[in-house]
Every structure is written in structure tokens, then in C-alpha cells.
Amino acid sequence: MTEEIRAVAPDRAALPADRYIDRELSWLAFNQRVLELAEDPAVPLLERANFLAIFAANLDEFFMVRVAGLKRRIVTGLAVPTNVGRAPTEVLADINRRAYELQLRHAECFRTRVQPELAAAGVRIVDWDELDAADHEILRDYYEHHIYPVLMPLAVDPAHPFPYISGRALNLSIRVRNPRTDKVEFARLKVPQMIPRYVRVDRRESVDDVRYIPLEELIANQLEGLFPGMEVIDHHVFRVTRNEDMEIEEDETENLIQALEKELLRRRFGPPIRLEISDDMDEATLELLVREFDIDEQQVYTLPAPLDLSGLFALTRIARPDLKFQPHIPVTHPLFRTNSPSEKPDTFAAIARREVLVHHPYESFATSVQAFVEQAATDPDVLAIKQTLYRTSGDSPIVASLIKAAEAGKQVLALVEVKARFDEEANITWARKLEQAGVHVVYGLVGLKTHCKLVQVIREESGRLAHYCHIGTGNYNPKTSRIYEDFGLFTSSPEIGRDVTKLFNVLSGYAIETDYDRLLVAPLQLRSGLLERIEREAAHARAGRPSGIRLKANSMVDETIIDALYRASQDGVPVEVWVRGICSIRAGVPGLSENIQVRSVLGRYLEHSRIYAFENDGEREVFIGSADLMHRNLDRRIEVLVQLSDREHLARIDRFFAFAFSDDVSSWRMLPDGSWHRSVVSESGEPLPDLQDLVMEDRTQARSRRSR
């Protein structure tokens, strides 16, 4: 195929130097889209508070990893990857400026919109001065019994050096005066992270009219008891974000777990990247913090209280369904349905009849993936189970099933990716539990993360071995499966079974394999496979044959892939890109990308699936899998895409993209200048339907059709 394509490819002019959008600024544009959901009055109030919390948590991780990594490279003189042709220091300044603007907008949204509207709805966040004497008495009693014993005020003076300040924790900076010497001293008090951030003032059972006080506000009004004999002059809130990016040097001689544990310890003491301070902080305190943290002015974010709005996650647990999205109830895929709720599905029988494509969270994870692994663990005919685990919960029924299978004498292999960012410690813990139960635990290949989502079950049937496989786009985590949108393919295809067997041999042994039938595997095959298919679509377009490319990913930043899409667009290939987060490609630019459209969808669920579809002159190829269009996914990870073949599955993917790119469905559309425009109302002024609501309705109707 490659030689034929090259033979007909035309000579092409150089692409413009400014053809990429900066990846970090593009990420900030994504977080702005999250913020726009918090600002949207059509979104239920507690959901808007949840989006404020998501914005804050996202931004923390962005600074801990992306900004920290960029700054570390600048300081150490390492090469800084950039695709926008500007100096790294200039890019860093732009990031800080734009992030600060968004954080001010974020705080304004809470103070002037969400907080007052929550108060009007009976959920009030109050200050100490708003409360009466009876309320003060209730809160003082709570403070004395639940907070005071765990507080640790730390003085700063010649005998007490400036203490270590942990990342992301709220702190009070306190100035006190000694009345005997008239000397002003500084102290730091960490706000305990194990105590609820918002303390309920009322002790009534009603949830229709509740009041909460921020924990730091409650503590700040009890400081006299912490410094008896001293005069408290003032106090301020601050918070530091540290570099928590991890650089693990892997080699054949060092135990990976030991190397990772050392790096986890180092991460706790990473250098400060951002300092957030309350806007009432005095200059003397600010100068002290800037000096001790050794940061510059552009890293200081002066914000109105309260700092760290990720604490709003706690408020979203309030039992106020009238302030939340109407619940979507996942349906069981029609092929996994049983006659009664107590009856467990025979997943093997269903998969043996035909391949099954499930779509979470619209279709239940519990009655598909979880049921599949649970049945494999207890089925006497199952001989072996192999599974990759990237992110899951330690109390996961998936992990419990693998342990049960090993205890029953089955061969069980679990490939645990202990380098999954921010889940490293948890993954090490339950990987050891799996080992103790007799599971063969391996940690993948040196230098590569194992990011693919695979389960393989080997079952003896009528004297032969049958392969049952699940290949997905998302993690084997029952908790996140309720809020992450993902696809998964169940199959008993002998071709896929052979492919997955080969891949597990690569992952657990010393095999080097590049020959797969229905899989595209990174890092050896996936990039070239995608590039060949993109160029094939261009060749079809040049010859006047049907062509088209549809891509759905979390992020798109790989320059080689982007350039191939630009060339395909110039040859007349219609390209639809559906991206949740970072997107460095430019859409609709004259002479460059007139045939490229880019959409983004955000909502109650996190769009997480990856889809790669090629028209191919009517002989369509559609893949789903774990890989995003980033350098790390294509070059430094084990990723898998699997080709769909069932006509009904291809039709479902078509319908999914039709929803996303319809002008009659709410979404964000990228404009030629790289900015994003959100469509929420029709030309007649009617609210546009939400894509995720449409997909749930589609899945519910599919179940009804099957039942008839």
C-alpha cells in the first residue's frame, strides 16, 4: 500500500511555520471550557460548583506536571519541546499570564454567581461574622473536640527555621506580637487536610436550608487560643503548588518498584511552582514567603478568598437532586441481559455468538466488563486470565476476581503499570496484594508505560482452547466507569486472540512482535499505521474516490500526524477531529486546513474514548483503543487499537460522530484563529440538546428495541 501511495503523491509546498497551536495554551483553553460550564446558568447549581472544583483540580495538576516540567527544563538547560517557534521563557510567561487571568475569572464566578445562587437555593457558605452567638457556640464546641487537638502552629525565628510547606495544602500565615518585648513574630499553621473543608454550622436533618463555614475561616477565628499571652495582629491564607512531575531513570539493574518509591519520596519535596495568596496579605508576609520559596513575581497569584475551590467537591455530595443533573441510569447491553436482576449473564455464550461493543457509562460496566472477569474467575473451564491494569481502585471487584481466580488454581497474569501518574503509590500497594495471592505480576517493559486496556481469558471448550478478549479505551476502574465515556470490544475472534496472546508475550517475556492481524500496537506499528491510512485517504481524494477521516481523542499534539492531516485536507479529504483537551491542529484555515473541522464536547461525563475511522473508498476501517495523538502515546507507550468489523458497530460509531458534528447539538467549535465558540442555542433561540443526553436516549431505545 505504501509504495502505491508514494507513486501518486504530488510535490507539495512547505507548510507554514505557525501551523501549530501551543500545547500548554491549548490546555488552558480546554480548562476555560470547563469554566464556561460553571458559568452557564442552564447547568444545575451543584453541578456548576462541581465544574468549579474540576477546574481547580485540573489547574493544580497542570502546574504540578506541565508547568513544572517546562520550568525544570529551562533551569537545567535541557531541550524544551515546543512546536510554536518561540523561546521557552516567553511561552512560560504567556502560560502564567493566561492561567492567572483564568484563575481570577474562576474566583469571580464563584463569588458573584455560584455562591449567591447557592445561598438563594438554601446552601449557604458563610463567614464567622455572619453568625450569631448560638452558632458561634456550636462551632467552638466542634473546634475544641475535632480540630484543636490536631493543629500544629509552627513558629519561625532563629531557633525555628521556616518549615517545609507541603504542596496543595492550605496554610495560615499568622503575625503575633509579644506584649512584653513588642516584637512581632511569624507563625505558620497548616489547615488539616483530613478534616472536612466545609464545616456544617447547623445540626438539623434538613438539607433544604444548610450553612457551611470554610475550615480555614473557623480556625482563623480561634487563633487566640493557639497563642496564649500573645496578641494576634493578622492572618492570611496561602497555598503552594510544587513540582510533582516524576523522572524515573529505568535500567536493567535497578528494581523498578524501589526506583519508583525513591522518586515518590523526592516528589513530596519538589520545588515550588506557584504561590497562591489571599488578596489581603500584607507586604512583609509576602516578602517572607517569596524569599523562603525562592520564586519570582510571575509565580505569585493574588486571589480573593476562599483559595482552593477544589474543596467544593464536598458540597456536591449534598442530597439536593433538584440542584443536580437528572440521573442517567446505565442500561445493560442487550446481549448481556438476563431474565431477572438476580441472574448473572453468561458472557462467554454471548461473546461466542458475536462481537459485543459496549459504551460506558451509558451501558453498564458492572454487567459487562466486571461480569466478564467475575465469570472467568469462577468458571471451572477457564484455565488462564491475563489483564493489564493502569488505574483501578484497591477495593475493585476486578482485582478481587483476579485474586479469587489465582486462589482457585488458575493461571493469572496481571500487568500492573506502577508509573500511572498520581496512582503510583496505590498501584504498588495492590500489586503486592495480587502477588501475595499467587497472581503473576509484571510491570511491563523498561522505558515504556503499558497504557493499553486488555483482558484475555483462555477457556477449554470441547477439547480445544477458546480465546475471549476485551479491548477497551478506558481503565478497569468501576468507580470512574460511571463518569468516564469509553468503548470496549468483547470478542472471541481467533485472529484477535492470537494477536493478544502475542502482545502479552511481549509484555511479560522477551518476545519482539510486529505481526498483528486486527491490532495496531505502539510504539512499533501504530504511528506508521495511522500515517499510511491518512495518506491512503489523500490518494483516494486525489483520484476522486470517497475519502474521509474521523478522529476522536483526548489530546492531539503530534506534529507528524497533524502535518499529515493538513496534507490530506489540502488534497480534499474531509477531516473531523473530536478532541476533549489539548489540540494543536488549526481548523478551517484558508490554504491549510479548509477541510478540517474540530469539535469539543464537555459535560457530566468525561469524554475519554479514542476512535480512528477511515472511509477508504467505501471499505471503511474503524479502530478503537487506548492511544491519544501525542508523542508519548505513539513512541513511549504500549498502546493498542483494535479494528471493528461488525456493521452494527460501525453504524454506532457513525451515529456518535453525527451527534458531535451536528449544528443542532451543543458543542464547542474551533475557529480558524484557534479560539473556541460554544453553540448552546439554535438559530430560533431554542436550547440545543446535549450530546450525552442523546447518546443515553439512543442506548435506552436500543435496549427497548431488543426487548421487543
From TrEMBL:
Residues 682-708 are annotated as: Disordered. InterPro entries: PLipase_D/transphosphatidylase (IPR001736), PP_kinase (IPR003414), PP_kinase_C_1 (IPR041108), PP_kinase_middle (IPR024953), PP_kinase_middle_dom_sf (IPR036830), PPK_C_dom2 (IPR025200), PPK_N_dom (IPR025198), PPK_N_dom_sf (IPR036832). Its EC number is 2.7.4.1. Keywords: ATP-binding, Kinase, Magnesium, Metal-binding, Nucleotide-binding, Phosphoprotein, Transferase. The active site is at H451. Mg(2+) binds at R391, R421. Catalyzes the reversible transfer of the terminal phosphate of ATP to form a long-chain polyphosphate (polyP). Belongs to the polyphosphate kinase 1 (PPK1) family. This is Polyphosphate kinase. It comes from Leucobacter allii. The lineage of its organism: Bacteria, Bacillati, Actinomycetota, Actinomycetes, Micrococcales.
